[in-house]
Amino acid sequence: MPSNARNHGPYARHAMAYVLAGGRGSRLMELTDRRAKPAVYFGGKTRIIDFALSNALNSGIRRIAVATQYKAHSLISHLQRGWSFFRSERNESFDILPASQRVSEELWYLGTADAVYQNIDIIASYMPQYIVILAGDHVYKMDYEIMLCEHVETGADVTVGCIEVPRMEASAFGVMHIDENDRIIEFHEKPKDPPPMPGKPGVALASMGIYVFETKKLFELLREDAADPNSSRDFGKDIIPKLVKGGKAYAHLFGRSALRSTEEAPSYWRDVGTLDAYFQANIDLTTVTPDLDIYDHSWPIWTHSEMVAPAKFVHDEDGRRGEAITSLVSGDCIVSGGKVANSLLFTGVRVNSFTELDCAVVLPRVNIGRHARLSNVIIDRGVEIPAGLVVGEDPELDAKRFRRTDQGVCLITQPMIDAIGR
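^ that's the sequence the OP posted. Answer follows.
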């Protein structure tokens, strides 16, 4: 359990974090063929979902539930291995809630609100006073206790976590218009022409998919929503707009509760939902002082940590020197006479002699054959890279063999490797 010394207020101890982790993440293409987006690897050791879970734990919340649905085996396995330290005798709980047709034998989770509604009885058994609804597929560090305090102080029916984004990028989000007291007076779900913030014509206030409710109020809303045949059973499309029109909905600005790497650093929040965004967020961690501080012991990112040997670098000959520069190299990696630059290697990667990696995100248990030259690549877990493979130098050839993005990043999977030469 965490020992970081932060002064938690009274609200986190009476709250449950409910993490929505059923998303497919189709824009990550083949990376989510076998796993849900929250289970995608990130940052060398962790999975994307570990950030929301760690924020809850570090904020003082000791009751957590995770709703899963799409291709959940990898995610559930990770949660069982990495998040099994909660103890009921300490009034702690950690529940994994797969879509199990508990309400109807024909229905899986129909939307984000339905994913909570179907488990009302489980939530009620713990009697939390507050519910913090979280998306399990974003990368950020945030103290939810501060948001809980604001929720109680304003007397809100719902408090929505919000972040400032460039206006024309906000069409992928729910967009808020607020008054001088941060009360939400308009809500637009994924508008084609997002309204700007007052006094900031190039910026819109977007929902982070984080909501705080008093539990009793949430149950009331969910039951009303379930009884509405016209509802899509979604927080962003149904619950939040209803409260904006007929209740008290307030915005919590992320900058007030964000954990920053330095006092001058911007608030860090990333939706790593495309291959280019995923690639860049991982590569950014290799810089000298990244905006996301994964070395902060006062706000650790908890995860399942494999028991493995240290990383090793061997051979010291001209042209065959095991080295890594401006890179993150995880445990059980062996760089044997190859050069790694501006790259991130997850656990158990093998880089063989005369290989060159530049701007590579290499997922666990990849073996890279001799004389390979790879740049601007994401390599999926367990891929066997053949000797002499060159990626990142011939755009047309890369596009024929692999999943190549508009920004020139190539995703490499084992089926793609197997198809070469057929």
